[in-house]
Amino acid sequence: MRVRQKLFDKSLLSIGEGDKRLSVFSLAMPIFFENVGVHLIGLIQTSLSSRFLDGFFVTPTGIATSTLSFLATVSGMVITGMNILLSIYLGKNREEDCKKIIGTAFIGFYLFRLMIFGLGFVFAKELLSLQGMSTEENISRLGYAVTYFRCQCVIMTVFSVTSVLVAALRCYGYTKAGLVSSISSSAVTLILTYVGLYVRNTSENEVVPVLVSVSAVAYFVSFAFVLFLFFKRRMSFKLAFKADWLKKILRLGFPANISMIMYTLSTVITASICVYLSGEMYMARLFVLQLVCFTNQLGYSVGQANSIMVGRGCGMGEFEFVNEMYKQNLKITLASNLLFSSLAAAFAPLLLRIFTDDINVIAIGVVVMWIDVFVEMGRGMNHLGQFGLNATGDTVYTTVVSVLSCWLISVGIGYLLSVALGFGIYGLWAACAADEIFRGVLYNLRWKNGRWKARFIREEKELE
Q1: 274 located within any domain
Q2: Under a CB-based contact definition with an 8 Å cutoff, are residues 423 and 275 in contact?
Q3: Is residue 284 assigned to a domain?
């Protein structure tokens, strides 16, 4: 495939022929709108919660949710490995093997979820206490947090199959499946949350049962939509546990997922630091995160699409095309992250009033939003670099870089700046920016020197 050197080359936007043709934007835009829709619903839910009973449930549900996110990331190594392996084998047109990969991932992912969330259920109180729920300010809300957390552990385990179906559909290029299921379930969540909290005048003791019931309904709606779309596309799998396939999945998924686990754990720790610093800083952090998650969504979606196409392209042997495509997608990601993060920072005083009228929280949030512009620039490089390298099987490198950077910079320097030197949440965010930029630069240097090609060829031989 001939690659032309241009500032922007349309020929780099797609790969493959006929019904197997993949396009960056046809893959990325459904993911983008899916995530924006989900985050928009989350933003509205946070706004509703922050103004219900004077925000009494914001901290317990927020800490419980961040812990659930960490556990989900830990159990996600099967999904990560399946994504990488499936993209490569689709590039080789090995359909029968793809069915075995999906079937093995079904069973493997469910077993991992059962184990991880089972441990979370048992040690719920201890996990939440470590993150600040046992402080004098929050101890009265610990019981609510534990109940909410345990119920969510059960729900997320029961409906774990949805994650496998969505991931498989994306690898085949059907990214609209995630869009439809996520937005529909999120809309259900929004409507039922509003009705449950405000229309029926829910009391304090009824809040957790209402939120849990809403979550269960939303997960069921998502599962039903995805299952329907999976069979509508006439996709199939062989539901059988194959140890060899699981070994291959984990061989790729474990190192790739370690980096995500370390990153998620570092965010849990920084959230805990905010809880101990002050209630205002924790609230500001929560509200800022609800806003800045929108600023990197186009870049994140392009990164996801890029990884699918990298895996497919490498499987086809189109290394030159993959390299040039990556460079162009990096430009798109950096430009979008800079634009959206700058706009969000400029309008931060207005945006933060969605959640609160507290002038102290708003003042803290405005400064953090401007620091976050630098975070998003580094994050853009990360999304392209890490996802792209993982798609080639170069997962060990991304893992080492991520683990060292997260702990030495994000957590280590973050603690030094925020607590030891007294910069508070501003120090945490500055350290986060340094972490993201450091990792992004190293990932892109790795891509530039071309070692990922040799890594892919070696992985390809070992996976046979």
Answers
A1: yes
A2: no
A3: yes
Q: How far apart are CA 228 and CA 185, in angstroms?
A: 14
Question: What is the extent of the structural domain holding 76?
Answer: 10-463
CA–CA distance, 359 with 409 (Å, rounded to integer)? 30
Query: Rg of the chain's alpha carbons, rounded to an integer?
Result: 22
State residue 14 phi and psi, 5-degree precision: -145, 160
Alpha-carbon distance 372 to 166, whole Å?
30
Match 């800490």 to its residue by tokens.
63
List, for residues 308-365, the tens digit of each pLDDT value: 888 888 888 888 988 999 999 999 999 999 999 999 999 999 999 988 888 999 999 9
4 domain residue, yes or no: no
Backbone angles phi, psi at 79, to 5 degrees: -65, -45
d(CA 87, CA 83): 6
pTM for this entry:
0.74
Q: Identify which of 425, 451, 337, 427 has the alpha carbon closest to the alpha carbon of residue 383.
A: 337
Contacts of 40 (CB under 8 A, 6+ apart): 186, 294
Ordered alpha helix ranges (H), 352-417: 359-391, 395-405, 414-415
The per-residue DSSP string of 51-84 comes to: TSGGGTTHHHHHHHHHHHHHHHHHHTHHHHHHHH
Q: Closest Cα to residue 286, out of 190, 365, 224?
A: 365
- In the block, tokens 């439809």 appear at 180
Phi/psi of residue 356, nearest 5 degrees: -155, 160
Whether residue 203 is predicted with pLDDT greater than 50 in this model: the reply is yes
The letter for the amino acid at 234 is R
Of the pLDDT bands very low, low, confident and very high (cuts 50, 70, 90), residue 2 is very low
Report d(CA 112, CA 72) in Å as an integer. 10
CA 181 to chain centre: 16
Q: Are 151 and 212 in contact (CB under 8 A)?
A: yes
Tell which wins on pLDDT, 177 or 236: 177
Query: What is the number of structural domains in the chain?
Result: 1
Backbone dihedral angles phi then psi of residue 172, each to the nearest 5 degrees:
-80, 0
**How many angstroms separate the Cα of 299 from the Cα of each of 80, 114, 135?**
19, 33, 38
Is 25 a member of any domain? yes
**DSSP code string of 199-245:** ITT--GGGHHHHHHHHHHHHHHHHHHHHHHHHHHTT--------HHH
Q: What is the DSSP letter of 15?
A: E
